[in-house]
Each structure stands twice: as C-alpha cells, then as structure tokens.
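Dataset card, provenance and construction

Sequences and ligand SMILES were collected as paired inputs. For each pair, a complete structure of the chain with the small molecule in place was predicted and serialized as structure tokens. The example below shows a pair involving fe (ii) ion. Curators did not alter the output after generation; any descriptive sentences attached to a record were derived from the structure itself.
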Amino acid sequence: MDPIELIKEDHRRVEALFEEYGAYADDAYIQKAEVVETIIAELEAHTEMEETIAYPVFREAADSEDEKKVEEAYAEHDVAKNLMDELKSLDPQDPQFDAKVQVLKESIEHHVEEEETDLLPSAEENVSGEEMARIGEEMQAFKDARDDEALDAASEAEL
Ligand SMILES: [Fe+2]
Ligand SMILES: [Fe+2]
C-alpha cells in the first residue's frame, strides 16, 4: 500500500467530518459532540501513525531543509493536540465550542495543505521505493489493528 495514499485517504475522511459538523444546526449539540468525538479519534490515530511510522523515516532521509518541514509538522501536530484536549473538556453547549472546532479545522487544513504540497512530495523524493513500501505496510497494519479494536469495542457494547 502506498503510504502517501493512506495518509491522503485519512485527510479526506477528516475533511468530510468537519463538513458534516458544519452542516448541523447550531443547537444540534448531541450530533455535534458525536462528530467532534469521531474527528478527535481519527486525528489522534492519524497523528500517532505519522509520528511513529512515517515522520521518523522522512526525517532520517531528509537533508537539513527538508528536515525543517518534518519538525514543523510535529509542531503543528502539537498545536492540534492542545486544541483537541481543550475541546474534550468543553461542553458542546459552551459558546466557545463552535469557535474551538473552527480553529481546529483551520489549523488542520493548514497542516494538511503543507503536508500534501510540501512534506509528502519531498519525502517521496528522499525515501527509497523499498522503504516507502515498508512504511506503507506498517501503516496498513496500524490501521487494521485499530479497526479490530473498534470492532471488539462495538461487540462488547452489544453484550
Ligand atoms: Fe497527515
Ligand atoms: Fe500530519
């Protein structure tokens, strides 16, 4: 599996979830809270996958200029994590809730844009095809393990 495609698939899914959030009425608190919960779960899994599997390989293969892009990506993940932590402790009826979701959305859009136009293209140049295939496999395994966990949790909830 191409790791670049896997990463982009996740990006499109999160974008769709933000769109779903935006389509709800202001007072659809339950639905909005559910979508935000899903967004956070998706983003946490995605950033963990990038930080543990992809970014270290990108950094290893980068020259000093490209290394800065990887460091910036880590820093942008940290910004998103802080926003997600704030959202987790915020009541969906809080007047700040929509604003925080909007700021998270904008910061993710910015990060995704940089990743897709800059970081990933330079990684594709720097990292060998063989190494790319290996991280693609690792990322697929990461995703499969996560899907299994979700299935287990769902079947436990049914019992
Ligand atoms: Fe990403
Ligand atoms: Fe990222």
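Derived descriptions for this record:
The helical segments are 3-23, 29-61, 64-88, 97-126, 129-158.
Residues 117 and 157 are 41 Å apart (CA to CA).
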